[in-house]
Amino acid sequence: MRAPKYDGAAVSRALATLLALAACRPACAGGDALGTLPPERDAGADAYAGVDAAADASLDAEGGVDAGGPPCSTALDCDDGLACTRDECDPVSRRCARTPDHALCSNGVTCDGVERCDLEVGCRAGPPVTCDDGDPCSLDACDEATQACLHAPRDADGDGDPDAHCVPESARPADCDDSDPLVSSKRAEVCGNGRDDDCDGEIDEADCAAPAHEDCLDPLIIAGEGSFPVSLVGAKLDLGASCVPTGASVRDAVLAITIPDGPPRRVDVRAIVPDGTAEVAIFGVCGQPSSELSCSKSGATGKGAQVAHARAWSVSPGVLPVAIYGDADTTAVVDVRFSDAGAPPTNETCGAAAPLTPGVEHVAPLIGAAADLPTACAGSGGELVYRLELDAPHDVRVFASTVDGLGSAQLSLRTEPCGVAAGELACFTGNPVSAFARGVGPGPVWVSVRATAPTDVSLLATLEPPTKPPADERCDTAPPLPPSGELLVQLADHTDDHTACGPGLVDAAYALELTETSDVLGVLRVSQTDYGALSFARAPCATKDDLLACTYAASSPMRVASYGVPKGSYRYVVELADGAPATLLSAVRPAVAPTFVPLADTCDAPMLIPPTGGRFLGNTSNAFAQYSAGCDQGGTGPFGAPEQMFRLELPEKRRVLFDTSGSSFATILDVRKGPSCPGTELQNGCAAGYLSQRSFVDLTLSAGTYFVQLDGFALQSGAYELSVWVLPP
């Protein structure tokens, strides 16, 4: 026989209260029956219809503690073979008790729904999140990156301008013809075509644009080197090219570059646009796609613009046709340069690698290079490969930067077997960037270089005597970290040894020994400009199979949590891009089963947090908005989203961590000082969690009464997880 997590009388009282509340709400609160949102907040709330609070309550009631199991002597007698249950032998009744832990079923994916632990079958999938808000003028989708519902304005032709039929008169202009991407309020009026291109209600008005240089019969004549503005305003697509998308919003301008008399020249054409994307194509004959000599897609400059760069290696004197492409009404800055003719580089693979001389600067001509090698570094640019021959072990450092300062350089160091990801020692991205490998050789080391934008890269290699790795370099020599302690992480002269969570980052490992089944939280604080990863793994943390928790983020602090971890040896792994000093905090407590929060909607019945902390699962979708929060978004009404309330009584001064990682919506945590509820908001006590790791608050609190408001940012609501950790001050 199964029973809920509370005793029978408590459950009966809770169900009676729940039914009374459902009956009362239409008359008492102005809302609909239990299970729907009040009309005044339904329109602005994210519609997590697939995460229904009543269903959650039912699941927890069905899958609660089963305390009526067979007789037992120890917990070993109670193993039910289900990985998501905590199986214990009740010391009083000497019968097996099973508690589901839904978090152990989570696959880390929000949009496919909330996985639950069933006492009969184990983990089972939940209904996928549906974000339909019932508005035909919005395109609704669950976004995994932000773990939130996105409601984009309807834009049938994909020109970035919403359909005017879905935009109030007061908010216009908008797209007056959502079936034609060449017509929108973002376009310029084109002269002489007899239509309202810019949706201002006028046709061919005085400030209309007359597109020029659109085809081979009217090119922009460029007589030599220099920088030239090239307008794409009002243009349309006339010349296709291999790297140019086929979308109807793409437009082009045609150039005719005069190559001076004399020997053949190398010709470089670079285009930078402040808006949209860009492409550059060089042709042998204008209007003949088969004569294409080079075609370049754009990449981010790192300065808020996009750049494309095409190169023709050997062009004879005469006229060279070039097309500049874009997908916005903007002006491209086109730079044309001539140099001595050459041939494309041949060091595209490890087998054809060019020699790299230590201490000598090399320039990798990446324009037009193909992508041939697998790598852990993110990006799609092509690479060139260089080879170092080492006659003895050395520490190898390679430095790189883009020649024109645009985009970022990427460096990868490889050993045998070259050409497969397993041979990659390190991969780093930056501008400038350096890659370091300790004690490699004797033998060959391959250096592959590429960039995040079409550009060339300068690189320099240095060799140094081999050094001894620091103790925290590897998992097998990781220094111990106290179960609940904090340390400074110094990554100078560290290498990239661990790639399971954050490839291309320097890293360090720290050992954690657990003497009993425990809950573990790691908190990593990094510098403002740094980013990286924090993971928690079984020793020896050699592969992804050893990972228990992993967070890759650009925001600080990063957190990893793992619950019900058996006693044994574990490792924290810190991985950072810049390797700037960081701090790592470890919090450990005896494992506790999660507590479901069925009500706690007001200050009259807040959920009690034990002074040792705890873990709470709930859903705010069917709660009411009754309290404001200082860190909420403006314009959401006097009380914002619905919330649930918690109460914490601290008998003495403590450091308390409040974490909502794992919640399905953008949360708010608001910690307030009592004695009366809702209390007074504390300094640094309000945190909005609109990023993937959700809200986190770290406070040192004196003895007293505190109230914790778990709220939604910008009217969001849904299933949440709140974990509270109480540490020494």
Which key phrases capture this entry?
3 helices; Jelly Rolls; single chain; disordered N terminus; five-stranded antiparallel sheet; mainly beta; five-stranded mixed sheet; 729 residues
Describe, in plain words, how this protein is organized in 3D.
With 729 residues, this protein is mainly beta. Among the domains are: 220-340, Sandwich (Jelly Rolls); 350-464, Jelly Rolls (Sandwich), CATH 2.60.120.380; 471-590, Jelly Rolls; 595-727, Sandwich (Jelly Rolls). The chain is built from three helices and 43 strands. The strands form eleven sheets. Strands 7-9-15-11-12 form a five-stranded mixed beta sheet, with no helix packed on it. The protein has a five-stranded antiparallel beta sheet with strand order 8-16-10-14-13, with no helix packed on it. Strands 17-19-24-21-22 form a five-stranded mixed beta sheet, with no helix packed on it. Strand 13 (299-300) and strand 14 (306-315) form a beta hairpin. It is globular, with a radius of gyration of 31 Å.
What is the topological layout?
Blueprint: H1 8-28, H2 39-42, H3 53-62, E1 85-89, E2 96-100, E3 116-118, E4 122-124, E5 138-143, E6 148-153, E7 220-222, E8 226-231, E9 251-259, E10 265-273, E11 278-283, E12 292-297, E13 299-300, E14 306-315, E15 318-326, E16 331-340, E17 354-355, E18 362-364, E19 384-390, E20 394-402, E21 409-414, E22 424-430, E23 433-440, E24 443-451, E25 457-464, E26 485-489, E27 506-514, E28 518-525, E29 532-538, E30 547-553, E31 558-565, E32 568-576, E33 582-590, E34 595-596, E35 607-609, E36 613-619, E37 644-650, E38 654-659, E39 667-673, E40 680-689, E41 696-701, E42 704-712, E43 719-727
Parallel strand pairs: 7-9, 17-19, 34-36, 35-37
Antiparallel strand pairs: 1-2, 3-4, 5-6, 8-16, 9-15, 10-14, 10-16, 11-12, 11-15, 13-14, 18-25, 19-24, 20-23, 20-25, 21-22, 21-24, 26-33, 27-32, 28-31, 28-33, 29-30, 29-32, 36-43, 37-42, 38-41, 38-43, 39-40, 39-42
